[in-house]
Amino acid sequence: MIAYPLLFVWGGLFVxxxxxxxxxxxxxxxxxxxxxxxxxxxxxxxxxxxxxx
Length: 53
What we know:
89% helix, elongated, mainly alpha, 2 helices
């Protein structure tokens, strides 16, 4: 039953990466550019998660 702790850590790792990515984007862009980059990265993240979880 090592799968449950592994999935917990794996999920936390991916959430942490997403949080850091959003922090970096927020510090580099403002206004309408921030919205555009955020939506593009969200779509890219979703496509990446769909292709290879």
